[in-house]
Amino acid sequence: MNNYSFRQLFNNIIPFIRKYGIFIAPLLLFFFFMFVLIFSFTRPQQQPAIGTTTTNTPSQSIVNSSSSNSPSKTQGEGLQDDEKKNMKMWSNIGLSDNDFAGLNATKISLPDGSIQYTYASDIPNRPNIIIVMNGLNIFQRTTFTNTPFNTDYYGQPDYIAKGSQYWGTTAITYIYLSKGIALIGDTSTNQLLEQILFQHETIDQFKQQDTDIIEPPRIP
Amino acid sequence: MFIVHAQLSGCGKIDVGNPTANQQVPAQCNANTTNNGGKWPFKTKDPSTFRRADQGWDLQGNSPQIIYAIASGNIYKANNDPQGFGNFYPYEKLDQPITVNGHTYPTVYYGHIHYADGSTQNGIKLANVIGTHINEGDAIGYTYPGNWPANWLEIGFGDSVPAGSGAFPTGPGLDMEQYLYGKRLDYDGTGKVIGHY
Fold first, then answer.
1. Looking at chain B, which terminus has fewer C-beta neighbours within 10 angstroms, N or C?
2. Residues 57..96 of B with a Cβ closer than 8 Å to A: which?
3. Contacts of A100 in chain B (CB under 8 A)
4. pLDDT exceeds 80 at position B4
5. Quick one: pLDDT at residue A21?
6. How many DSSP H helices and E strands does chain A contain?
7. Do residue B150 and residue A148 have CB atoms under 8 angstroms apart?
């Protein structure tokens, strides 16, 4: 009886599909893709970004055994790509003499009332400089060593200046006015030579501070 | 005579500041392999490395940095965070929770770095620290030269999840400054540093 019903049903379906298959196939495809779409949106993430409390990710070699009592745990607290690229590098940090203790820094009062702290860096005859105005760090020049000249992170610079009176003709300065940072790198060695953090936002103000630039800054 | 005591990890307590002429610092306490006994994640404390306070406190070395534990505890690998702190950053469950301004924190994260994994970094052979107990001043990781802003560390309270949240600077971020540096830095020039908890 069951076999008969099944055979009868099968015999009816086959002609139906043959007759209307051209309409049914796209409909089935449509439902299939809709299912995949809905499934992908409702499925939980396997690799949680920072901010999730899941601890048993497959690549985790040590299971987080602590149930931290840290306050204010919320999701989505990690730095995302957009946030990093828009990040202002200069911070108006308040600094005073005590912050330079132990660095054997030289303190000079500049004509505009700011105070310049100069202390030895890892590069001979090229000290680090921090200028403080009204207690706030407004300019900072720091030498770098053993660090690649990576400009991808900051995106397109506002200005580029070729050459440096100190670093030579192969040096190039990438200036990011809105981020308050300039990177001086060596194009021949692809090494970061120096980093300048600054408060001001116009290129003319920057040129007054960074007096080592040889060629005028140009928009790339 | 001016004598202060500094606790060097695994080195015992030695006198510094005005030591006797024959005072010898043990080899394992050399500045190349510890943070000079200071409660500091970089080898040297330099205001040019200070960056903003957000969920934690950002520091940027002027060269690739070895990262040192700021307190004793057990080191664990944090959750993968490819768009943020990376996939290989550690956090530490402290032996003794740290209390700052009435807030108690049992864990510290070291974001944007790679945990010490048995490799040699900056000429220093680093032991694999994941799952191990470490002392204050022990090397526990190293910075990346270029993935984020070069040689970057965000140190803060929390584990895979920072304790700090909301508007920057967060209270826990400033608490980390206060714990490490002894004060909260002034980020707006008014002297009123507001930390959001």
1. N
2. 62-64, 76-85, 87, 93
3. 47
4. no
5. 76
6. 3, 8
7. yes
The 8-class DSSP code of residue B114 comes to E
Distance, in Å, from the CA atom of B156 to the CA atom of B154, rounded to the nearest integer, reads: 6
Beta-carbon contacts of residue B98 (< 8 Å; ≥ 6 apart): B71, B104, B105, B108, B157, B179
Please measure the distance between the N-terminal and C-terminal CA atoms of chain A and give it in whole angstroms: 83
A chain contacts of residue B16, beta-carbon cutoff 8 Å = none
Nearest to A140 among B48, B82, B148 (CB): B48
- Interface residue of A47, A55, A69, A70 to substitute, partner B, most B CBs within 10 Å: A70
Is B103 within 8 Å of A71 when comparing Cβ atoms?
Answer: yes
Q: Residue A94's beta-bridge partner residues?
A: A136
Name the architecture of domain B35-181.
Answer: Distorted Sandwich (2.70)
Which run of H or E residues covers position A66?
none
Beta-sheet strand order (sheet of B66-68): B66-68, B139-143, B113-115
Burial B102-118 (b: 16+ CB within 10 A, else e): ebebbbbbbbbbbbbbe
Query: Percentage of chain B surpassing pLDDT 90?
Result: 63
Residues of chain A scoring pLDDT < 70: 1-6, 9-10, 39-87
Distance between terminal CA atoms of chain B? 44
ipTM above 0.85, yes or no: no
Kindly report the number of other CB atoms within 10 A of residue A117's CB atom.
24
**Domain range list for chain B:** 35-181
The answer to whether A72 contacts B77, with C-beta atoms less than 8 Å apart, is no
Average pLDDT over residues B105-118: 97
